[in-house]
Amino acid sequence: MSTSKVVIVTGASQGIGAETAKAFRAQGHRVVATARSIAPTVEADHVAVAGDIGEAATARRVVDAAIEHFGRVDTLVNNAGIFIAKPFTQYTAEDYAALLNVNLNGFFHITQYAIQAMQKHGSGHVVTVTTTLAEKASSHVPSVLAALTKGGLNAATRSLAIEYARAGIRANAVSPGVIKSPMHPVESHATLAGLHPVGRMGEMSDIVNAILYLDSAPFVTGEILHVDGGQSAGQ
């Protein structure tokens, strides 16, 4: 366990978050998982904390749980996110509030607390899941609120990387295309596959493997790693 990291994963009750938590545990790391609907548990290598990640109190409880049970925080995976595809004028105030709460507040609070913990031992890594639609808009997918929030996270990732580079703390992002996950019903897969130059949707393992790569790449920081079947290159 001398090489075991302590990894926090948000949005970890299902989909990419759950698969990411599973993959880190399979590598011998200890994981603190959080989501609204997750069942609270405490195991030798896994702690689950239920709560709204947009709330500062939840973020505080998650980081405190990592320190209480495992003594430190090495990696934070900001995976929690909401995506709502609507024409811009049809977004409601509730849509706007929901995306800001999870996508921005859910990044801000826990990243602050995690970096504070990382600074105590002079190393760490923050990796955030964003979206290629933040940089390459598509006429097939109206996504202004995703661009507004996730695009901000790409910019924040670069800024964090520079601010904390000499403190031994890295910051990177994974920018996915459309991934086969519980977010997308099966009947939509054929249409969504056509949005990618490679002609198919991505798998959750594609994103998990990108996160694992970035976490194991000590000379990589400030990177927005596109895992999008060529979407970011063009159509």
Task: Throw out a few tags for this protein.
globular; about 240 residues; SDR family oxidoreductase; alpha/beta; NAD(P)-bd_dom_sf; 8-stranded mixed sheet; single chain
Strand order of the largest sheet: 3-4-2-1-5-6-7-10
Helix and strand sequence: EHEEEHEHEHEEHEHE
Number of helices: 6
Mean pLDDT, all residues = 93
CATH topology type:
Rossmann fold
Unreliable stretches (pLDDT < 50, length at least 5) are none
Estimate nothing, just give the exact number of structural domains.
1
Round the Cα radius of gyration to an integer and report it.
17 Å
What distance separates the N and C termini?
A: 46 Å
Q: Number of DSSP strands?
A: 10
Q: Could you tell me the strand content as a percent range?
A: 15-25%
Describe the main β-sheet briefly.
8 strands, mixed
Helix content: 25-40%
Structural class computed from helices and strand pairing: alpha/beta
CATH superfamily: NAD(P)-binding Rossmann-like Domain
Quick one: CATH class? Alpha Beta
